[in-house]
Amino acid sequence: xxxxxxxxSRNNAFLDRFLAxxxxxxxxxxxxxxxxxxxxxxxxxxxxxSLCLAAGEAVGxxxxxxxxxxxxxxxxxxxxxxxxxxxxxxxxxxxxxxxTCHVAFDEATAILAxxxxxxxxxxxxxxxxANRPQLALEVIRIIASAAGPRGMVQGQxxxxxxxxxxxxxxELQQLHALKTGAMIxxxxxxxxxxxxxxxxxxxxxxxxxKAIGLAFQIVDDILNVEGDPIIMxxxxxxxxxxxxxxFPALLGLEKSKEFAQNLIRSAVDALAGFGAExxxxxxxxxxxxxRNK
Length: 293
Ligand code: GRG
What we know:
mainly alpha, Farnesyl Diphosphate Synthase, two-stranded antiparallel sheet, 15 helices, binds geranylgeranyl diphosphate
């Protein structure tokens, strides 16, 4: 049986070393670098970089080839969390089991740490794959598009605009396809493209990504209802208290769980054309539904 914890901890050790080196060599100025490091190295689940590396592996690429892309994706994800936690957005005090960046530092420093992580991510992306410039450009385009105004940022905007209004299931899915799904899908597609996968492999990995991206968000909403804040390292019950649109609010808990299970099955089905080299992706799909944080 595939040992997912061992697989993730090995890849995360490489990732953490890579991220620490990027901050050491590329961030100048102690307060800004401290705030960036505080949030980046705070021990998140590293789901998106893990998916990126596993997609590279599924198409036969070495870890070293895909590692900078996985690192850049985690930087963008961390920036989005820092900004999402700000008083102007969700105004959260706890993230990754620690005080949020603006509470530990101050609001201006948190805004700048987020800006700096986003920018640094693109510097890292532009500095890698020097001998494969076309491929590097394609990866940058995919990630920028997923993170920007037709992806995560627009998803966040829709989320804020939907406060106080009950969304339909279709609207809620669209919101999350942008806010959470786009970066999850981009992590996978970028990993497969950097690993020089064939177009059918890239398509399969994209389909897997769409399904687990939505399942991840549904599980996040379920954990917000029944999760343990200590284990999650962040508050629970906030969707209900803020009257946020969520899958359990719209469908009920049982139907939400069923929906997530079906999506995980579709994700695994999308990998039918791969053999053992996609075992990590299959195991991560199982983790997405079983996770408790
Ligand atoms: C501020 C531009 C901007 C975007 C924010 C991703 C996001 C968009 C907001 C996060 C809000 C949130 C709680 C979304 C639910 C799903 C989600 C993305 C959770 C956080 O990701 P995890 O669980 O976090 O992978 P860790 O800390 O494990 O990396």
